[in-house]
């Protein structure tokens, strides 16, 4: 067995996927959950326990456990193997042929980021770092906080990193791909970050993968400059400070989500160990999922200004779609989280945090301020705004409770409005778990599934199926061909082996066949399927004969027509004989 097979057979795909997706058992061999690769409200992401693969019936992604880790964590094949082998304590062969160009590049980029961080930190302490140190002092950051977050300074020269990387022998192509170095028209290289306060950005395992830089001179645009996307940095996947905060998030069973680096740092410095920041980008599903692995509860604390409130409102839908419990922290005095902690202290912030409103009350407040609640038009407008948000709550009981609470909170009386509202909330289209619709016939499906069951049964089955012309007319003919070929070659006929020989369309068919079946199928069922297939064959042959007969007649070849008719009659006799 090669290492990949060994790994796959020792790792349970359900528990690996379960770290990212809440899976519910939905059949003897099957789990389902919300797809982590696209945004959906009813589950179509399916994991097969026995054949150890996943498939999403909405967006079509599928693969094995290695592919899942690759896609979810943005790793190369080699890195995914390594990560799984470390997690499950399965030693990887020393001389492994899996190290590829891709992981070498990533290794180099990570090394460059480490060197850059060191250089930035040294700069901050040097004479050149004075303006940065002044800014830090103005923001009231203690030296240990600066140290803890690895803050640094990128100097004005615009050549410091280029020189450093040249000294360490990194090729120009790697420098460019790091996102830390740019290339001018004339081919010369320059540092992307100049005269900025530098914030290292880490991935969840604590490796530096990017930087954010705050301008120190008011003339420098933009105020915050971030690393571009690189092979090691996918903006939409990373939350600032998550690698430090995840312990705290688990312990407190709550994450605090703020907008910027300084907020995350300030609130952490005040003693809260569960703060993450979205940092400039609109919150993404992947970011929410990254937090969700540690807790389902989140307190959103964005800036008190209008853009902050709008961003908070947008984030609510996304958080609800991921099944998070959302509260909105409101701070008085127009203070952002960092300022609030400094001016009012940790205890006051803690109070605001614990007193944070459920998101629907916060939304209700927001929309109420825009309408005249004394008129029924105003009430209807407010309720219509809130309705879709309430409908987004997946649990029906919770949905009704919240609807009643909100109606009460808004002062909507028990009139028509409330009835209409309640009705709409109750009637939320409850999409049941979607069973993939298989285009395959029942007998066809049974035979495919049986192919992976019992070797003896399979050999019998193949012996009877092989000569059937009907097989070539089935949508699954490509899969049967692969099974026949493997059996003939005397190799193992397992799901992986067959799947590996198929085109993508056929892989989808096979997945559907396998995922549509619960539990074991019996020998009787298999026999019945073979007989059904043989009956189809008879029908098929008769159909063929009839076509040929009418062709002969039309062509005036009556002898041939007579001979074929006799053949047809013989076939029909056998068919009747079988039925008796
Ligand atoms: Zn999907």
What does this structure look like?
The chain has 580 residues and is of the alpha+beta class. Strands 1-2-3-4-5 form a five-stranded antiparallel beta sheet. The protein has a five-stranded mixed beta sheet with strand order 13-12-14-15-16, sandwiched between helices. The longest helix is centred in the C-terminal third of the chain and has 32 residues, at 523-554. The protein is globular, with a radius of gyration of 32 Å. Mean pLDDT is 86; it is low at 429-435. Zinc ion binds at residues 35, 37-38, 45, 56, 58-59, 61.
Amount of helix: 40-55%
List the bound ligands: zinc ion
Number of helices: 26
Structural class comes to alpha+beta
What gross morphology would you assign?
A: globular
Biggest beta sheet attributes: 5 strands, antiparallel
Percent of residues in beta strands? 5-15%
What Rg is obtained from the alpha carbons, in whole angstroms?
A: 32 Å
Number of strand elements: 16
Topology:
Elements: H1 3-10, H2 13-18, E1 24-27, E2 30-33, E3 45-48, E4 53-56, E5 62-63, H3 65-73, H4 77-87, H5 101-125, H6 130-138, H7 143-148, E6 152-154, H8 160-167, H9 172-177, E7 181-183, E8 189-191, E9 196-202, E10 208-215, E11 224-226, H10 242-252, E12 255-258, H11 261-269, E13 275-277, H12 285-292, E14 297-300, H13 306-321, E15 325-328, H14 337-344, H15 346-354, E16 357-358, H16 359-368, H17 376-391, H18 396-410, H19 416-426, H20 442-450, H21 455-465, H22 477-489, H23 495-500, H24 504-515, H25 523-554, H26 558-579
Parallel strand pairs: 12-13, 12-14, 14-15
Antiparallel strand pairs: 1-2, 2-3, 3-4, 4-5, 6-9, 7-8, 9-10, 10-11, 15-16
The protein binds zinc ion.
